[in-house]
């Protein structure tokens, strides 16, 4: 499963394995490949710290606070090192980019293998879709992130902050997204 993904990013840190209750609650809502990934690898840190596969139960309230989901059917399953949420929308994968105040479909269809093995292993794709150019320099300057952290711009980009690597700080993901939602409003 996801051989190309793990060839490019062999190091990962499993934080916890999902409980049977969590798996059962999402097995009919998320693609089977993602559920299998959870069962084999668990929730944890991947892609040299850039990608966190998360328990939706812990991040869904923050997604709902900061983003107007369609009937609350969209499910967050990953968070980037810059605080972007990757959500399943039933037939596609959407990136909710709180930093820039927008969202977009980044993969159509339910082929998680394609998303992990093709999209996430292509540097150009990551740069174009995730706008992650400042992640590496922030990681060198600020150090490795904990599972519940991301790098966040201070001041917020939507409040006039500049998108420079030196303006990134380590922040708690959920609290940071909540602050963005409170200051700038819900993404619609």
Automatic annotation (TrEMBL):
InterPro entries: GAD-rel, T6SS_Tdi1_C. Residues 115-183 form the T6SS immunity protein Tdi1 C-terminal domain. Pfam families: GAD-like, T6SS_Tdi1_C. Residues 2-92 form the GAD-related domain. This is DUF1851 domain-containing protein.
């Amino acid at each position: 499963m996801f051989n190309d993904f793990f060839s490019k990013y062999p190091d990962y840190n499993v934080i916890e394995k999902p409980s049977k209750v969590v798996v059962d609650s999402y097995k009919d809502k998320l693609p089977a490949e993602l559920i299998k990934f959870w069962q084999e690898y668990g929730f944890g840190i991947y892609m040299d710290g850039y990608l966190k596969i998360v328990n939706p139960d812990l991040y869904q309230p923050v997604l709902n606070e900061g983003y107007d989901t369609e009937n609350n059917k969209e499910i967050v399953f990953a968070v980037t090192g810059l605080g972007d949420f990757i959500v399943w929308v039933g037939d596609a994968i959407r990136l909710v980019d709180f930093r820039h105040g927008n969202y977009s479909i980044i993969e159509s269809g339910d082929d998680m293998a394609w998303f992990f093995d093709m999209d996430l292993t292509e540097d150009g794709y990551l740069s174009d879709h995730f706008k992650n150019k400042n992640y590496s320099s922030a990681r060198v300057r600020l150090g490795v992130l904990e599972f519940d952290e991301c790098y966040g711009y201070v001041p917020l980009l939507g409040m006039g902050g500049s998108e420079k690597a030196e303006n990134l700080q380590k922040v708690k993901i959920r609290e940071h997204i909540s602050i963005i939602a409170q200051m700038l409003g819900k993404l619609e």
